[in-house]
């Protein structure tokens, strides 16, 4: 079994934490661990799980989150288990995928009870497609939306919580520009509008300097990187490669930092060539 849908009725069971706060935690850090009671047959380690709100409030019904089961323990005297679930995408109230859309894609889905509904074959594929269509990734993120692919098909690269914070990212790019500080590539200049939101940010403060009361300064601690250089930086763990490390790698391979010529620059060069050739 690779995927299950877990109905949650807020009229009968309270959220195990503070929902709005948990939405923010997942957005900043990428994961939130919750403990939930599940039928034993649906609680295998590594199973993809989607949370769907049911209940008496039609405006609240729908898919709200995705997670992965990370272990479980039997609940004495029952056929259920207490499962640890790593929630990696949790939608704010009002942004849920409407229940009508879910049932249109999966007309045979049974969410009338409180037990998790297992999915197989075409039903699992349909749910993943609906989820991917309805939950676009954050700007600057190239990874597939959590749940769009089976968990065993995705390799996660560690990144700091600061790199995931959209407001810190916005401020870092506003200060540092949209060009990669390692290779110099400006994705918006190179690709136009489709590349405008693809630049990422990298946290450069050494982990040894980070204490519980540490406050991030996006103007000092974060630098813009293209997705390729960002992946290279995190290719070493726990201490990522520095920006200068990556520049040294590029220089050793004969790569020279530069910029992409604009249309105006290309036209000027062509005009100069015509003049010189005349």
Give a topology summary.
Elements: E1 3-8, H1 19-29, E2 32-39, E3 48-53, E4 62-74, E5 80-90, E6 97-98, H2 99-105, E7 117-119, H3 121-134, H4 161-164, H5 166-176, H6 187-191, E8 200-203, E9 222-225, H7 227-233, H8 243-252, H9 263-277
Parallel strand pairs: 1-3
Antiparallel strand pairs: 1-7, 2-5, 3-4, 4-5, 4-6, 8-9
Characterise this structure.
With 278 residues, this protein is an alpha+beta fold. Helices cover 30% and strands 21% of the residues. The chain contains nine helices and nine strands. It has helices at 19-29, 99-105, 121-134, 161-164, 166-176, 187-191, 227-233, 243-252, 263-277; strands at 3-8, 32-39, 48-53, 62-74, 80-90, 97-98, 117-119, 200-203, 222-225. The strands form two sheets. Strands 1, 2, 3, 4, 5, 6 and 7 form a seven-stranded mixed sheet that branches. It has a two-stranded antiparallel sheet with strand order 8-9.
Which blocks of ≥5 consecutive residues have pLDDT under 50?
Answer: none
Structural class estimated from helices and strands? alpha+beta
Instruction: Characterize the quaternary organization of these chains.
Output: single chain
Please indicate the percent range of residues in DSSP E strands (runs of 2 or more): 15-25%
Radius of gyration over C-alpha positions, nearest whole angstrom: 23 Å
What is the general shape?
Answer: elongated
**H and E string:** EHEEEEEHEHHHHEEHHH
Average pLDDT: 81
How far apart lie the N and C ends? 73 Å
Question: What is the count of helical runs?
Answer: 9
In total, how many beta strands? Answer: 9
Give a short account of the largest sheet: 7 strands, mixed
Helicity, as a percent range:
25-40%
């Amino acid at each position: 079994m690779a995927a299950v849908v877990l109905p949650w009725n807020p009229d009968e069971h309270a959220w195990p934490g503070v929902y709005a706060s948990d939405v923010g935690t997942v957005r900043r850090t990428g994961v939130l661990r919750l403990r939930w009671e599940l039928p034993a047959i649906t609680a295998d380690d590594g199973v993809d799980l989607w949370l769907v709100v049911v209940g008496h409030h039609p405006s609240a019904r729908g898919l709200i989150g995705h997670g992965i089961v990370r272990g479980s323990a039997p609940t004495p005297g029952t056929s259920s288990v207490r499962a640890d679930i790593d929630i990696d995408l949790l939608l704010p109230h009002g942004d849920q995928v409407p229940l009508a859309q879910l049932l249109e894609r999966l007309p045979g889905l049974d969410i009338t009870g409180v037990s998790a509904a297992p999915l197989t074959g075409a039903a699992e594929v349909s749910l993943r497609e609906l989820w991917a269509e309805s939950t676009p990734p954050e700007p600057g993120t190239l990874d597939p939306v959590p749940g769009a692919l089976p968990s065993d098909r995705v390799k996660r690269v560690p990144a700091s919580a600061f790199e995931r914070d959209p407001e810190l990212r916005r401020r870092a790019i506003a200060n540092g520009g949209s060009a990669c500080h390692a290779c110099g590539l400006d994705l918006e200049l190179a690709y136009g509008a489709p590349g405008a939101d693809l630049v990422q940010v990298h946290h450069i403060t050494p982990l040894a300097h980070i204490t519980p009361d540490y406050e991030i300064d996006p103007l000092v601690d974060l630098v813009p990187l293209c997705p390729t250089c960002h992946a290279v930086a995190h290719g070493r763990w726990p201490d990522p490669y520095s920006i200068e490390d990556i520049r040294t790698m590029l220089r050793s391979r004969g790569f020279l930092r530069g910029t992409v010529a604009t249309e105006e620059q290309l036209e000027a060069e062509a005009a100069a060539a015509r003049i010189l050739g005349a």
